[in-house]
Each structure stands twice: as C-alpha cells, then as structure tokens.
Amino acid sequence: MTPAPENAGQALIVFDLDGTLLDTHVDLVESLNYTIAALDLEPVTYDDLTHLVGQGARVMIERACKLQGRPISSEELAPLVERFVAHYSANMPGHTEPYPGLVAAMDRLKASGYRLAVCTNKLEGLATSLLEKLGLTHYFDAITGGDTFEHRKPDARHLTGTIERAGGDVSRSVMIGDSINDIAVAKNAAVPSIAVPFGYSDVPVSSLDPDVIITHFDELTVELVEDLLRDSATKVAV
Ligand SMILES: O=C(O)COP(=O)(O)O
Ligand SMILES: [Mg+2]
Fold first, then answer.
1. Were 19 and a residue from 39, 76, 178, 214 both cysteine, which residue would form a disulfide, CB within 3.0 to 4.6 Å?
2. Which residues participate directly in catalysis (predicted)?
3. Which of the listed residues 15, 18, 55 should we mutate to test ligand 1's pocket, taking the one with most ligand atoms within 8 A of CB?
C-alpha cells in the first residue's frame, strides 16, 4: 500500500452523491414517474434524467412536468415533492448501488488517513438515509444536502460549509462529481476537481473543464489526490 503522506490526515475528498458515489438512476426515474403520474403525465426515461437531475427533487419534478408539456405552479409543486419524498424513502435503497470500485477506493483513502465527505443537492435527509441503508455512512465525516445551508451547489458556500463540518481545510480538499454543479462549485471555492463520466451530465464532462477525469474508481489513488493538491497549491502560490 502507498505510504500515507505526512499531512494526509488533513486532506479531504468531497464526493457528490447522485451519479458519482451511487448509481441511483432506476429509483430516481421510478419515484419521479410515480410522482408525475398524479398529473396523468407520461413517464420520463433515463436519458431524460440527465437534463432533470442536479438541483434536487423540487427542480427535478418541475423540469419533468415541463418536459411532459405541463408546467406547474409553486403551489402545485409542494404536494408533488411530498409524494416524491414519500415514495423514494419507502423504496430505499431499491436498485441503488455504489459504482464499481468505490468502496475499495474509500477504504484505500481512509487507510491512508484521508477524510471523506458528501456534498449533494439531494435533500440531506434522503442522502443520509440512503447512505445509511447501504451501510456507507461511517465513511463520511460530513454529509450535507441541498437544504443543509442557505446556499447549494454551485454556490461555493455549500462546499466550504461541507469542508468545515468535516474538519477539513479548503486548501487540502478535492471535489469529485459527475455534473456541471460539482465542477463549478469546486472552481468557485478554488478547490481542485475530478469528474466522472458515468453519471448524469447532459454534456461531456470534458467540456466542464475539470482538473482530472477518472473513468473508474480504481484511478482514485492517493498519488492522484496528492498531485492535484500539489498542483493547486502551486497555482495559488504563483
Ligand atoms: O438530487 C439531485 O438533483 C442532485 O444530486 P447530486 O448533487 O448528488 O448529484
Ligand atoms: Mg451528481
């Protein structure tokens, strides 16, 4: 195993959840379709999901209704969000599972002294219960959602708040995610970013200009993280 760098204890890897840690697409589509069926709308597909996910359940439902030709008011939205949350919670963890290699990567990073955290736009309660049901909560020093702070991704304060809760340091943190909000929040907080192409981005992740793209969690190594932190420290110094 790679020896832990001397200051590894201070380093923090912050993960996005939907489409990064967990393949949630089957359950999201099922709960979303159950929700919009209340308005007699046609089901959405997995391909649609890439345009719908990213800003939490409220926005996802709003976008899905619009996509199916029935824009809704904010008064109509509240009961639909409740319907979604009830269905999604009742069926958790459903078909959701960690992406290949994730658990081994988290074990490796923790064994080398890294802290891990989750910064998701999913509701904090849903994120926490889902991770709990999958037996993954113990890996994380903080789990924050789209409703944890007043601001959410891509606002830098969602990421900096998560780092603070996890006992990390902005200058020793890395953000890893699947979509524009994740790469944008990292840039907004001046934190290096890693993109994964297997999630729900509606554009190729290379167009988001992350510092690194990994196609499998086997590539998430201590060396990669340390290189990113070193490069970013040099950029700040220059
Ligand atoms: O639930 C969403 O819309 C987004 O969730 P994520 O931030 O974990 O990708
Ligand atoms: Mg995501």
1. 178
2. 16 (nucleophile)
3. 18
Structure tokens at 90: 């009742």
Q: Whose CA is nearest to atom 9 of ligand 1?
A: 18
Look at the block and give the residue holding tokens 């990994």. 214
Tell me the pLDDT of the chain (238 aa) as tens digits: 444 455 545 799 999 999 999 999 999 999 999 999 999 999 999 999 999 999 999 999 999 999 999 999 999 999 999 999 999 999 999 999 999 999 999 999 999 999 999 999 999 999 999 999 999 999 999 999 999 999 999 999 999 999 999 999 999 999 999 999 999 999 999 999 999 999 999 999 999 999 999 999 999 999 999 999 998 888 766 5
Contact 66, 85 (CB under 8 A): no
Cβ contacts of residue 44 below 8 Å, gap of 6+?
A: 29, 32, 33, 36, 52, 64, 67, 68
- Rounded to two decimals, the pTM is 0.94
Q: Does 211 contact ligand 1 (Cβ within 6 A)?
A: no
16 is in an annotated binding site: yes
Q: Counting atoms of ligand 1 from 1, which one is nearest the CA of 19?
A: 9
**Whole-complex ipTM:** 0.96
27 in contact with ligand 1, CB cutoff 6 A: no
* Residues with catalytic function: 16
CA of 2 to the centre of ligand 2 (A): 29
